[in-house]
Amino acid sequence: MERRAFFKLAGLSATAFAAGGMLGACSSVEHISNTLVPSADSDGASQVSTVVAQPPVSFSNSVDVLVVGSGVSGLSAAMAPAEAGYKVMVVDKLSLLGGESYDADGIMHVAGSKLQKKAGFAQSAEDAWPARKKELSAAGVGNLDFAKSLYLAAPRWVDRLSDSYGAQFADPSTYGKEGVNDAVMLPKNGLGDMQSVMVPLRDGLSSKGAAFQTGYRAVAFILDESAVVCGMRFFVEESGSVIDVRAGVVVVATGGFASSQPLVSAHAPALLRVGCFTYASMGEGQELCRRAGGQLSGMDGTLPLTSDLPQVSAWGMFAPTLIVDAQGRRFAREDDVNAPANACFSQDRGYWWTVFDKRISDGSQSRSAAQMTSKYAKRLVGPCDDAAELAAAIGVPADVLQATMERFDKLVSAGKDDDFGRTVNLKSLQAPYYAIKQLPVRYRTRGGVLTDENGRLTGTSGVSIRNVYCCGSVAANGGEGLASNGAFGMLVGEAVVSALEAAR
């Protein structure tokens, strides 16, 4: 029999349940001291968790490993525990599994996987790291040592998904060659096809005994009488009830905070009025961990932007494209998925056009081209037989666009983009021309919960908090793409198994 009075909730706020519609039904509020947080902050102010009149803890399920979040990082964290025979549960607040990873563009920065070696790409992750390090450093990533550890683990993550779970990836030789896209992997059907990776992973985990629950919103850690985390409380959207799950280890993989206006206002106020592609990255994991005594770090760092049509922003990696602003001028490199959006916003350009030709629909990303041009037909212009017709279609001065295209052709002839540094698919466009309109949006964040090298949550005292791990975009050193977050989850899952084995 559980002595329920000994259990406490940590990390819960009144707003967590207000969002679930429970605040109005409560007649009182009780204040429970959060034993994971120091009694006073640097200003001497008392730190407590405000808990809306809560029912006593009553565990409805008990697992060895509870993973909160079913994106690529969360599912990857479940692999090692499930393979080791531990009882694993993966929960998500959304009604469908996969999180926002399922809707991602599918670009994975990986080098040295078995599939890449089979395609004739000889470089290892260690060989490719200097180029990737340069990209990450330019993007504002701080902890490059940790980023390197994830990059070096990424090919093993891909191999594991492919060999053990049947995840399907595109043949790298269809979109790359030695020196061009040879450190990039895509799902089977190219851009936007993350279901080819995530569905087999989900099904493989299920076959290994992992259980899944959707519509469960994490609202508090549960502490035992020794103030050690022993589970999580969830609010179940459909029933309006709370569910308590006992867990030996809790892995938080809830993503970033790009969708949260309050958190963006606090940490990146300049981007508050920018639209957001994501819809579920509300920063709940960061807030839960903070209220439970965890440290946050780096959340005021650079927030990269992308196109509101993320697949289109990646076309320049796989086919000739040209981007122009509302005046018909080129303003950024086309082979960087973030460069056009970042420049468009920072330079107050409003929107931009990606100009392309039939080579995108005839090439490796034909599926993406068909999908995007069909779904967003109202943004599409073309075919246009010449620059003048294209200029009229997109509403820019014909002489300006003509000059832009002539300048671009000169750069192509010279074999070097001295204007913006494009290196991939630096080729002239061929009529007929097409163009599709895009806007800059938020889509992911940097910074979050501070962890140690194994992903364990770091408390405000600098000591790791027992039984809590974090991975992916919720963590301070996560969020650098699908492969990085997948590798992060895999490594955390392996660390969890090691800890469980050591505790036996």
TrEMBL record:
InterPro entries: FAD-dep_OxRdtase_2_FAD-bd (IPR003953), FAD-oxidoreductase_2 (IPR050315), FAD/NAD-bd_sf (IPR036188), Succ_DH/fumarate_Rdtase_cat_sf (IPR027477). PROSITE patterns: PROKAR_LIPOPROTEIN (PS51257). Keywords: FAD, Flavoprotein, Oxidoreductase, Signal. Residues 1-18 form the signal peptide. Its cofactor is FAD. Pfam families: FAD_binding_2. Gene3D superfamilies: FAD/NAD(P)-binding domain (3.50.50.60), Succinate dehydrogenase/fumarate reductase flavoprotein, catalytic domain (3.90.700.10). GO terms for molecular function: steroid dehydrogenase activity, acting on the CH-CH group of donors. Residues 64-483 form the FAD-dependent oxidoreductase 2 FAD-binding domain. It comes from the Bacteria. This is FAD-binding dehydrogenase. It comes from Paraeggerthella hongkongensis. The lineage of its organism: Bacteria, Bacillati, Actinomycetota, Coriobacteriia, Eggerthellales.
